[in-house]
């Protein structure tokens, strides 16, 4: 499946949705990395994610690591409760920069 | 027409800036813009064209060409402007200006004619689709000719990548964009849109350049949307004559034309046949040079779709099939042998009956031949044992290899470092330096003093360890630090507590997410319930009893499942 990407205020916003598991995490990985390789700052919107497994989390981690080594911004926005509980349990909320929405990031000014 | 605001909002800041772009051919662009002005006088247009003798000659040649087939001979610019009309004049001028935007030697070591030959195939494909799409044929021709211009610009900006042209040319439209991202950090459609805006090209054509892969924004009008679809189909039709995997390209063309225009496979093939026959004629009209064209029959033969016409006998086909199946079976057997060896190596990393220690037990079940989970324990003093349980993200061979590395690090470093938090920090730095593809490891590490029942436990992003009394939950110990391999400087705090005659359960998500008979997942509450139910079973028999009660004895696992139990002194 393909996940939509929206260009907003200098960010590529990747909209993940549904269940992010072994079946579709390669697609999530591809869309996140392709946008980072284009030197775009990336925000991943997780508001419509009902479930995410460790392969889905690995796609986010890879995006985070690529952004860090290439001096790009990478963050998560609007994280759904289902996704947040997974991130909290693994203490990945300490790792990712998480915003309630893209507007919050824009007001925050980075 | 797309609305200007939509247009501006959809142009992101891409890696190619307008200042990187080749300069627009000003005279032609001026005519293009004049054509788009409502109520423009045809005499003014004729005057603008006549000012440029090269454009005049080109316009007259195209107007009289067999390919564009105007009804009467056109001998003057003013007549051409009248006969063509503003929009057709605009399109012709656009084609000519883009053709001349980069001189033939503008990109060192690259023959631009090769690119234009490919662009012409897209143009004639799009023109043929015009009727099916109820669009203007010349408009479609122009969109087809311009849609991949961004690739030429990318090569112009990055001439050092010209050596990859053959790889780009041999790939299908979808794969080509992935290669572009790796080579240029951008794609031809993005650059096309940037260039179209920078040169102030008409918006419908700009959208065809920018949105023939991902589709236009929702607010786009239906005619422009259809032009983008035509460009998508034209891209694949042209690739039939260029890419290495012609079978895939032909099948994709059939699928796209069926989906968008209800075309039968025969109709698709007929149109593809026409592409080869029209390219030379269109090239003459446009003043371009093309090489000898492959016919569609030759393409089909290359795609090996006409096996039946190759006069292969039934016996020979059967023989070939048997050979292929035999080869497949040999590879499968070889792969299975390799997997079996990998499985044996993995098993050697887990504690076995020979290393059995009192008061601790574990079980590892893998969903595939090899596992990404592991557990381990060993003595670190007269009464003390070091233990760990871990889960590598992902499944299969890459997870198994990282698991082997982590298990080895735990064994090697743990012999000298008896502080679980410090040990995890050390393993974390080692894994971080070599971690690939976002892989990480969640891990619990601890030391238990079997005389006093004291446990020191540290967690790297792992699921909470569960401390159970005889029949009730005493405490849970969730992670206070992220998994291994993500951040080099993570700190892993230690938790110290007494087992008080209870048991400490460590497990991986394969247990929590295991599906029970009714199809629901076990989850945390289910786990606590199952642990209570099995609390009185002998320690060494308990892991298997617990997993059997959750996933059944036939064990069709979605994920690796590992469980470890540490018992306090009674």
UniProtKB/TrEMBL annotation, chain A:
<feature type="domain" description="STAS">
    <location>
        <begin position="1"/>
        <end position="109"/>
    </location>
</feature>
<dbReference type="Pfam" id="PF01740">
    <property type="entry name" value="STAS"/>
</dbReference>
<dbReference type="InterPro" id="IPR002645">
    <property type="entry name" value="STAS_dom"/>
</dbReference>
<dbReference type="GO" id="GO:0043856">
    <property type="term" value="F:anti-sigma factor antagonist activity"/>
</dbReference>
<dbReference type="InterPro" id="IPR036513">
    <property type="entry name" value="STAS_dom_sf"/>
</dbReference>
<comment type="similarity">
    <text>Belongs to the anti-sigma-factor antagonist family.</text>
</comment>
<protein>
    <recommendedName>
        <fullName>Anti-sigma factor antagonist</fullName>
    </recommendedName>
</protein>
<dbReference type="InterPro" id="IPR003658">
    <property type="entry name" value="Anti-sigma_ant"/>
</dbReference>
